[in-house]
Design brief:
homodimer, 93 residues, alpha+beta, four-stranded mixed sheet, 2 helices, 37% helix, 37% strand, globular
Chain lengths: 93, 93
């Protein structure tokens, strides 16, 4: 799984481009952010990527969750946004 | 559609409880936030609500988008998180 790490200083349009690129190629991507500024940039990037991908007929959703990550010798709680195609997991039996 | 407005000072667990309540009853809810602090609380609330609702067998996703809102005489850009059951819209013809 590709992981895009977002900082408070990341440009949301640049992150959106990265999300859209991975979504087109792999169909899913995880976006990770620590702290309010970074989480804000990450979610804005998903908003923008959704518009980019709509043009390709790709409908995305995101599943937000907390994950514990090790930064140096510290454990921090990150927000991970699992970006997926809306219907990726549909199975009709 | 129910709309939950989140501020930077909102408690994410309280917002999560509200999201979970509306999701159980109506199956979808919009969560709206303006500014990095509020967006962070909103997304954290969705993370927590996801855990609450998993216990009920309800799998949620969120679709983030920008919306223009009028605050007094100013137009502001808000982030709206459309929280939905994962498969709400599935139609099999």
């Amino acid at each position: 799984m590709e992981l895009i790490k977002v900082a408070a200083t990341s440009r949301s349009t640049a992150v959106a481009g990265a999300i859209a690129g991975v979504m087109r190629e792999k169909g899913q991507v995880d976006v990770q952010a620590i702290g309010a500024g970074a989480v804000n940039q990450a979610i804005k990037a998903v908003c923008i990527a959704r518009v980019y991908l709509e043009e390709d007929g790709i409908d995305i959703v995101c599943v937000p969750m907390f994950v514990e990550v090790q930064i140096g010798d510290q454990e921090r709680t990150a927000v991970r946004l699992c970006v997926q195609r809306r219907w990726t997991d549909v199975e009709i039996s």
